[in-house]
């Protein structure tokens, strides 16, 4: 019997470096015998949420340019002027994390696609993904109507499941002494280890090649 191999991806939907890592993560879906598990860590939710002030906006934009140079991911002018320059918005990944949990509960095989769409809505389209209505619209646009309805209803089961996922993500971060996100844990069926996150920003396809040969 073949061993079950799993990559656990620890992330936050408002983390620019996680957005930069998305092309590498996407290649893992091409490896037939590899399961991909997504776990949010709540980096920018709850106590981690904060005002999107000028200082943080400038810091984020500088980091975004580095990410673009490494990965080619788009950080548009619409994002710069419609998100980073909007002082009414907060840096709060709680709503986006909740939206992803709604997908995990109703169509788990589509969660990465939902994450990528939510990231693109923010960084390419300049939309406010801290707004539940925007998130529901993004999910509906992917045909994830059940998840969109669950998010809109704010059901207790969704809140409980979301808290459980974030807690598990935080526990794994602590257990493997991860300093931040994105973080990858690879379980070959007998042992789980943390991968060097730099591989997420290396030559396209490098991550998939390494795990295909593992």
Protein described:
The protein is built from 9 helices and 6 strands, in the order βαββααβαααααββα. The protein has 214 residues and is an alpha+beta fold. A 4-stranded mixed beta sheet has the order 2-1-5-6. A two-stranded antiparallel sheet has the order 3-4. The chain is globular, with a radius of gyration of 17 Å.
How is the topology of this model organized?
Layout (H helix, E strand, L loop, with lengths): L4 E7 L4 H12 L6 E7 L9 E2 L2 H18 L5 H8 L5 E2 L2 H13 L4 H13 L8 H10 L3 H9 L2 H20 L7 E5 L4 E3 L11 H8 L1
Parallel strand pairs: 1-2
Antiparallel strand pairs: 1-5, 3-4, 5-6
Helix pairs in contact: 1-2, 1-5, 4-5, 4-6, 4-7, 4-8, 6-7
H/E series: EHEEHHEHHHHHEEH
Q: Strand pairing plus helix content: what structural class?
A: alpha+beta
Strand content: 5-15%
Oligomeric state of the chains present here:
single chain
Tell me the major beta sheet: 4 strands, mixed
* Alpha carbon gyration radius: 17 Å
Uncertain spans, ≥5 residues at pLDDT below 50?
none
Overall shape: globular
End-to-end Cα distance, whole Å, is: 17 Å
Biggest sheet, strands in spatial order?
2-1-5-6
Number of strands: 6
Q: Average pLDDT value? A: 96
- State the helix count: 9
The helix fraction, in percent, is 40-55%
């Amino acid at each position: 019997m073949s061993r079950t191999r799993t990559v656990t991806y620890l992330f936050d939907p408002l983390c620019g470096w996680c957005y930069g890592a998305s092309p590498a993560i996407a290649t893992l879906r091409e490896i037939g015998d590899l399961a991909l598990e997504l776990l949010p860590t709540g980096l920018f939710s709850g106590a981690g949420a904060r005002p999107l002030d000028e200082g943080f906006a400038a810091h984020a934009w500088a980091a975004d340019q580095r990410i673009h140079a490494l990965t080619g991911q788009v950080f548009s002018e619409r994002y710069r002027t419609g998100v980073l320059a909007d002082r009414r918005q907060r840096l709060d990944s709680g709503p986006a994390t909740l939206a992803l949990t709604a997908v995990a509960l109703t169509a788990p095989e589509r969660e990465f696609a939902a994450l990528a769409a939510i990231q693109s809505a923010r960084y390419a389209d300049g939309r406010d993904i801290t707004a539940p209505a925007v998130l529901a619209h993004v999910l509906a646009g992917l045909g994830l109507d059940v998840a969109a309805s669950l998010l809109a209803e704010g059901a207790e089961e969704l809140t409980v499941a979301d808290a459980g996922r974030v807690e598990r993500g935080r526990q794994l971060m602590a257990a493997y002494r991860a300093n931040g996100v994105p973080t990858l844990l690879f379980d070959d069926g007998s042992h789980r280890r943390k991968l060097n996150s730099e591989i997420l920003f290396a030559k396209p396809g490098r991550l998939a090649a390494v795990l295909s040969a593992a």
